[in-house]
Design goal:
Elements: E1 8-12, H1 27-46, H2 50-56, H3 58-68, H4 73-85, H5 92-117, H6 119-122, E2 129-130, E3 139-140, H7 144-153, E4 164-168, H8 174-183, H9 188-194, E5 207-209, E6 212-216, H10 234-241, E7 250-252, H11 260-275, E8 278-282, H12 291-297, E9 306-310, H13 313-322, E10 334-337, E11 344-346, E12 358-360
Parallel strand pairs: 1-4, 1-8, 4-5, 8-9, 9-10
Antiparallel strand pairs: 2-3, 6-7, 11-12
Helix pairs in contact: 4-5, 7-8, 8-9
Amino acid sequence: MDNKQANICYLLGAGASYNALPIVNEIPIELEKMMDYISNFEVNQSNTNYQIVRSKLSNFYSKLVEIKAHNSIDTLARKYWLKRQSYLVDTKEYQYWDKEYEYIKRIISCLLTYRRLNFSKTENFSNEITSFDNKNRLVQKLDPRYDSLLASILTFDFHLPENISIISWNYDLQLEQAFSFYQDQNDLIEVGKNLNIGYETKENSQILKLNGTAWFNPSGTIQAFYNYDFESHTVFWNALKDSNDPLIKTGIKFSWENDNLVDHYRRSASEKIAEADFIIAIGYSFPIFNRQTDIQIFSKLNPKAKIIIQCPQEHGDRLITQMDSIKSGISSKTSVVGYTDQFYLPNQYWQPNKQNSLRVL
């Protein structure tokens, strides 16, 4: 790697936000909590019978049954997308499945926003900490590992170093939340722009979100979901009671979608991987679900690059074994970091000439 600073690319999966957000098998019960809270609020505001309120949300509850029947909410979204794609665009069938597909995105966006904005109001735990269903797992509004990473690498003018890039499979706003402290800025959209996140087809973005972002995008303009009136829960209510409102769109763009924005994300991610001396995968299991995109973004992998998977030690061997299904031979250049209490940087971040050692932040 000569004397230059090593190029470091983070690849983030859902486990990177484990200390803040529900994992796959916790999502159904968290959706039920969210809807109980919204329904009770509506009952109190309108003096309406609880059963009448629930009946107005029948579309959501029918979807909840489907979500519980699938391995993940993303799996159901993928099925709806495939169903939509089997019809011509100008047919009624296509329009129907398009609405169902977008409605699943709304549910995801509502849940993540609910967890972020109403956290301290809906849980009986101090310091904005809850335990979900696992008493041994304390969950905070912000996964503190993001804050620790940014505090360690941000420049004095609060920018990412040029040799750091981040590719995230997550549609949450944990990065934006962590960075907002340094910007004294509540608008997470502006925060993300300052952090050089590629929300649209922005070139030279240092952070790419392969599945988009879980905010709402009304009237074709980027608008943070939290800028609306959440005290009245009008946005939650309108987004969930009716799947037919064409103005309620989200910023989620799944990596399997075939459009210019998604293609831009994938090509840009491939370029980041090609430039990297170290790829650090955190909380990412390289699932079959994402295999096609993973193959694409690893297609130009630097032959000298080191791949580091940060995950619980017991999962390490399995993940290394399946790496060769993404690109032949890369399991031999892959190692595991078994500690998950902090995100990792290679020592080369500080000492460009030294190789192959790791440092805990």
